[in-house]
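Kindly draft a polypeptide, keeping tokens residue-aligned:

***
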Amino acid sequence: MGRPGYKLEDLPSNWKDKMLEMMSEGASISELCAEFNIPKSAHRRFVSQDEEYADYYEMGKTLSEAWWSKEGRLNLSNRNFNNRMWAINMFNRFNWKFSETPKGKPEKEDPKPKSSASKKTLPSESELMDKYSTGKEEKTH
């Protein structure tokens, strides 16, 4: 027989404050679950089934991303800062994507399908990491 399901009532009484406090310091889902002594599956279930938990978690994600963004911004000129690790963390943790189109400007769809011969070959992830993590962008126009 499996372990009984986790309930929101099983969380510490101060879970809302603790969640926002931890995530405002850049905490991950794993850290949050460890603090609350719940598995990630319970966390995902709470997010999908409890509106209040989901709202607090959404705010927490914003706080966490803001913390990590600030770390990057404040350390731009710090030679000891591991900017590659920071960038990888941001891509993985916050689903950052490389895009050729600036945010807010949707890419226009071409009604005519392009042949595979005319498709542009995109750079590899490692080439992009090298290009953007050093702060030296190549200008192509």
Observations:
- The first helix runs from residue 15 to 23.
- Confidence is low (pLDDT under 50) at residues 134-141.
- Residues 7-95 form one domain.
- Residues 102 and 134 are 20 Å apart (CA to CA).
